[in-house]
Amino acid sequence: MIKKINLIIILIYTLFHLPFILQPTINHYYSIMQADRSSVARNYYLESDDFLKPRVDVRGNKTGITRMEFPLYNFITALLFKIFHSDWLGFGRIISYLAGLLAVIVANKIFELSLRTRDLLPQTLIAFFICSFYYLISTSILPETLAIFFAYSGFLLSQKKKYFFLIFLSFTLAILIRPYYIFFGLPILINFLQDRQNRLKWLIIIIGSMSILILWYFWYFPYLNEHYQLNYFFMGNCSLENGKYLLSFRCIFDLVYTILKRYVLISFPITFVGFYFLYKLIKSRKFKFQDTIYQLLMISILTIIVIPILVNGHYVNHDYYIAGILPMIALGNILMLKKISKKRYYYPIISLIFIFLIVINFFRYNQSDALKWLNEHKNELTSETTKEDLFVIECSNPSFMYTIDRKGWLFAFSESGEKIYENPCLEECVTSIDSTGYRNINSEKYFLTEQYYYELKKYYLAGAKYAVLDMHLDRTEFISINLEQLFSASDN
């Protein structure tokens, strides 16, 4: 039975996530990845519910079907869209939040085994909450928390050495959704080596999960790329150069920088002192492979060694690649929180950290003004179009494509000086919206440089019917151009 204090903390934990859950557009935190995963979910809902053929919006004139991580998260989100007949962004965030909360509850059981104690849930919730990475990822439209939940569940069940099918299912789903959680299968390997009575079962789990992983990423991936000609998502680049990077000072700097900035920025004093207590705890125990705390330590070590080899320095801007270190950071936080939990200043300090965390992250990763503007004016920009019309949008971020709910191309056309010049062909085929609202298309002339003009023509010849352009290169005013009118007028 959950104690009253735990329910109160869960309620507070939920309330502090609401500002991000209720945002009407995609926020700045990994906006590109959020837009891509959102588009896959919405296209399951609107275009095709074929699970094995995920589709993105940035597709050019192709079908949008592309390779990606196992799209379970996107499919569950699409199911909510169908149930409620709405593609509200909040559904994806709610799934992330609930999976993240369940992952924390499972992690609490792991930590109780590690520390050989009970009733840690309040400290565990706080320990995860004050980690900037986990706070943000828990309300992002990304599959991270779902993968973490399955990874932690498989790890916990492996400690109990029963429910073998659930161990197999949890571990397999975790590594299919995010392969870099494969290190949480360490207890499975240890049990295979040491548990003679159930060795065959552990072997079946290892072979089965690895076979499915290889089938998805090394057979089905190439098939999708070859058949649908759209290679969209980055999936790592293992090379000898990455090995050199691992041995360089730059790698050490990148790791320290990423951990400090993304994981312990707000909680640094608590985490830093907590690591001292964690070090003393580990030192006091005799090394055993079966000891949960040593397994978590080995997972962290494997993460910071193997991930740089697989992705080089990409984890600096994609902090979730090294999320295998999260349990050890949370453990450090828990040990420090336990030390001060009976002090008079405990709750004021925690409250200040909570408030500081929310304020800093909300302003840092709030919605962009451009997306809010597009969201408010998308009906005007697309009023003369259908969803089948292909668009080309002047931006390198797919969140713009997602916001106006169209398919096609993105392009970032860089050019020094103004892109505007006299070209009467644009006068009758431009719709402009600014902060004052809808403007009559005949009230002003719009002009493009010759270089810009011919760049757009390439997309027109490929099938684009409309373009959404940034008028002043500062994302304060956009125009929608009917490319058919533009180029038919210029041809005449």
Strand order of the largest sheet: 2-1-5-6-3-4
Report the helical percentage. 55-70%
Average of pLDDT? 83
Largest sheet, in brief, is:
6 strands, mixed
Rg measurement, Å = 25 Å
What class would the helix/strand composition place it in? mainly alpha
Number of domains: 2
What's the N-to-C terminus distance? 77 Å
Shape: globular
How many individual helices?
A: 21
- Determine the strand fraction and express it as a percent band: 5-15%
Low-pLDDT sequence parts: 414-445
Order of helices and strands: HHHHHHHHHHHHHHHHHHEHEEEHEEH
What's the total count of β strands?
6
Q: Please, could you describe this protein's structure?
A:
This protein folds into 2 domains: 4-364, no CATH class; 369-491, no CATH class. Helix content is 59%, strand content 6%. The protein has helices at 4-15, 18-21, 31-46, 72-84, 90-115, 121-129, 132-137, 144-160, 164-177, 186-194, 199-228, 240-246, 249-263, 268-284, 292-311, 326-340, 346-364, 369-381, 398-404, 450-462, 483-491, and strands at 390-394, 407-411, 430-434, 437-439, 466-470, 478-482. The protein is globular. The termini are far apart.
